[in-house]
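Quick one:
INPUT:
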């Protein structure tokens, strides 16, 4: 009886021991499972972040690829344009090399200006070329005080004026580049107008005629007023196709008869009642001179030299040349 009871007690103790162990193991397993779940959650979060980063990186790579493709296309287009331009440049060079340039024997040698054939678009051309040279007293110097001082000196000093010496060089420059097949005439004007080298047209290929013109030019003494109307009348009678005017400003004198014209009512200097003329009267005088002279469609080109006190000259001369399809040149002091 006691043995049976002891066995029962032993079995109970064993069952109880196993039950406690099972509970303990279950708790440990639950903790492991929870730890693994937490770790899984952390890993999933990391995977999600990495996938987001991967997606963002792929987007940036795609955008960069698009930019790279556009840049490559632009570079290819530029290279193609550069290659085309280089090819066109080569073709142009070859065509220029193939042009035969005839020898242009100059009737007038002009060693001071070298081989320059034009300046700022100015070319000497035309079938009948008229060169008008302002030989008034203002054509001696640029500053009015110097003009007045030289005006009251002797003939030699007037002819030695720096602006007049430059004017003579410009005339020589033009004559040296006049086409030999063209006719030309050089007219100087101050109070009156007179042809140089004899009356009428001279041939651009006639060396002796050119020399006579230059000899007469050397004899001129720059003095008197600027009567542009006299110069235009003289050249208009020859019916030129192209006119080259060398002057330093608007006219200061005109022909008689202005007193009866209303625009000149206040310009008493035009009929000898004043020793000076205002800028306003000079503009009116110039405009009337141009409108009243028939030049038969001649192209007018003007080389304007500097002088103090005539700010309207460049504007009025520009309007005149533009109407005739000519040009106005205000050259640098170093030219020619």
């Amino acid at each position: 009886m006691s043995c049976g009871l002891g066995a029962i007690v032993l079995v109970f103790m064993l069952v109880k021991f196993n039950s406690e162990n099972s509970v303990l193991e279950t708790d440990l397993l639950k903790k492991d499972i929870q730890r693994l779940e937490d770790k899984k959650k952390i890993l999933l979060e990391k995977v999600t972040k990495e996938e987001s980063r991967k997606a963002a990186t792929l987007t940036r790579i795609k955008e960069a690829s698009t930019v790279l493709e556009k840049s490559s296309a632009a570079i290819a287009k530029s290279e193609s344009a550069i290659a085309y331009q280089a090819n066109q440049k080569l073709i142009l060079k070859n065509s220029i090399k193939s042009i035969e340039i005839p020898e242009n024997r100059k009737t007038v040698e002009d060693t001071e200006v070298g081989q320059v054939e034009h300046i700022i678009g100015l070319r000497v051309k035309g079938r009948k070329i008229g060169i008008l040279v302002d030989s008034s007293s203002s054509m001696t110097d640029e500053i009015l005080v110097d003009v007045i001082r030289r005006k009251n000196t002797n003939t030699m000093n007037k002819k030695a004026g720096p602006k007049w010496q430059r004017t003579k060089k410009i005339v020589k420059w033009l004559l040296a580049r006049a086409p030999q097949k063209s006719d030309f005439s050089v007219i100087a004007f101050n109070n009156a107008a007179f042809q140089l080298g004899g009356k009428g047209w001279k041939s651009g290929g006639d060396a002796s005629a050119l020399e006579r013109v230059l000899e007469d030019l050397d004899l001129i003494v720059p003095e008197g007023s600027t009567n542009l109307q006299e110069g235009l009348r003289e050249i208009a009678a020859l019916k030129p196709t192209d006119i080259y005017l060398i002057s330093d400003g608007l006219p200061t004198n005109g022909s008689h008869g202005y007193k009866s014209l209303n625009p000149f009512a206040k310009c008493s200097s035009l009929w000898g009642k004043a020793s000076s003329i205002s800028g306003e009267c000079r503009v009116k005088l110039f405009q009337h001179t141009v409108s009243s002279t028939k030049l038969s469609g001649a192209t007018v080109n003007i080389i304007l030299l500097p002088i103090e006190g005539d700010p309207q000259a460049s504007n009025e001369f520009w309007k005149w040349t533009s109407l005739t399809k000519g040009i106005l040149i205000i050259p640098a002091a170093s030219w020619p």
